[in-house]
From TrEMBL:
Domain Metallo-beta-lactamase: 37-208
Protein name (Swiss-Prot/TrEMBL): MBL fold metallo-hydrolase
Annotated source species: Sphingobium nicotianae
Any Pfam family hit: WHD_BLACT
First and last residue of the signal peptide: none
C-alpha cells in the first residue's frame, strides 16, 4: 500500500464546497483504512443527491441534514457496501423520504478473514443501478459506472455537468485500494482502472483523500503501481523458488504500518490469484506459491 501524502482536511461535520454542484462532509471515522474518515458528497442545489452517506453515526447524519437544509433529496447513492459507506443510507432515507439507489446488495457465502472494512449486511437498496444508468435532478446528472475490483458491486458515479467522477474506494486520494479476495478481484480491479484511463474525466472525488485534478495520469500511476507489485512477486518467486504470502509481504512492504500488514497480505493474495489465472504462478502445496512450470 502506498504511504499517504500530507493533506489538509476540514473538520468533521462541516460541509465544504468543492465546486458549484459539489459539497463534501467528512464523517468522524478516521482509521488506518479510512484515513481522515469517509467523505460523503452532496450534489446539486435546488434538489440534491447524497453519495456514500457513510457509517451509521448520529453526528454524521446530523451534519448531512444540515448540509441538505430545506432542499429535497432526489436520491441516496452508495458506491459499495463496506460499513464505512452504506449503513448511513437507511437512516438518511427515513429522515428525508429519499430512495436508496446505487450498487447492488452483496451476499457472500463465506467472506473469509478480512483486513479491510466489513460489509454492511443490512443494505437494501430501493433501486439498483446498472452500468450506464442515470439519476438526474435540477441541473445535475449522475451516470453509474461499473468498476468491480475493490468489491464486486462497486460503482463510480459521473457528474456529467462538471466532468467529475465520484470514485468511492476504487481510486482513493491518499493510498492504494485494498483488494481482498474472495469478493475483491485483482483481474477486475485492473480492468476497471484501465476503463478509467480511457475516460475523459476532469477530476476525481474519492471517498478518502483529496480531490484528484489529473485523473487519467493518476489512474495510469495506479496501474503502474499494481504492475510493479506483480513484477515484485514474480521476481521474488524466481529467486526463492517457493514462498508464502507472509514471506512476500515481509520483503515487499518494508516499513509499512503493522496495522496494514494484513491488508497487504490480502492484496498479495489477489495478485497471486490474478497471476494464477493467467498461467504465470501456481501453488506447489497449499499456501506455497511458485512460478508456473
Amino acid at each position: 500500500m502506498a504511504e499517504p501524502a500530507p493533506q489538509t482536511f476540514e473538520e468533521t461535520g462541516v460541509a465544504m464546497r468543492l465546486s458549484p454542484l459539489v459539497r463534501r462532509v467528512l464523517a468522524p471515522n478516521p482509521s488506518p483504512f479510512t484515513f481522515h474518515g469517509t467523505q460523503s458528497y452532496v450534489v446539486g442545489e435546488a434538489d440534491v443527491a447524497v453519495i456514500d452517506p457513510g457509517p451509521a453515526d448520529d453526528d454524521h447524519l446530523a451534519a448531512l441534514m444540515a448540509a441538505i437544509g430545506d432542499r429535497s433529496v432526489a436520491a441516496i447513492l452508495c458506491t459499495h457496501t463496506h460499513r464505512d459507506h452504506s449503513p448511513g443510507a437507511r437512516p438518511l432515507s427515513l429522515k428525508t423520504g429519499a430512495r436508496v439507489i446505487g450498487c447492488a446488495p452483496l451476499t457472500l457465502d463465506d467472506d473469509g478473514p478480512r483486513a479491510d472494512a466489513a460489509f454492511d449486511p443490512d443494505y437494501m437498496p430501493d433501486r439498483v443501478l446498472t452500468d450506464g444508468e442515470q439519476i438526474a435532478g435540477q441541473g445535475w446528472t449522475l451516470t453509474a459506472l461499473a468498476t468491480p475490483g475493490h468489491t464486486s458491486n462497486h460503482l463510480c458515479f459521473a457528474l456529467e455537468e462538471e466532468g467529475a467522477l465520484f470514485t468511492g474506494d476504487h481510486v482513493m486520494g491518499w493510498s492504494t485500494s485494498v483488494v481482498s479476495p474472495p469478493d475483491g478481484d485483482m483481474t477486475d480491479y485492473l480492468a476497471s482502472l484501465e476503463r478509467l484511463v480511457r475516460r475523459d474525466d476532469r477530476i476525481y472525488y474519492p471517498a478518502h483523500g483529496d480531490p484528484i485534478p489529473d485523473p487519467q495520469r493518476f489512474a495510469r500511476h495506479m496501474l503502474g503501481h499494481r504492475r510493479m507489485r506483480e513484477g515484485q512477486i514474480r521476481r521474488f518467486l524466481d529467486r526463492q523458488g517457493s514462498s508464502t504470502i507472509p514471506e512476500m509481504v515481509a520483503t515487499m512492504y518494508v516499513g509499512l504500518d503493522p496495522k496494514l500488514l494484513g491488508a497487504a497480505g490480502r492484496s498479495v493474495l489477489a495478485h497471486l490469484i490474478d497471476l494464477d489465472g493467467r498461467g504465470l504462478v501456481e501453488q506447489a502445496t497449499p499456501g506455497h506459491w511458485v512460478l508456473a512450470s
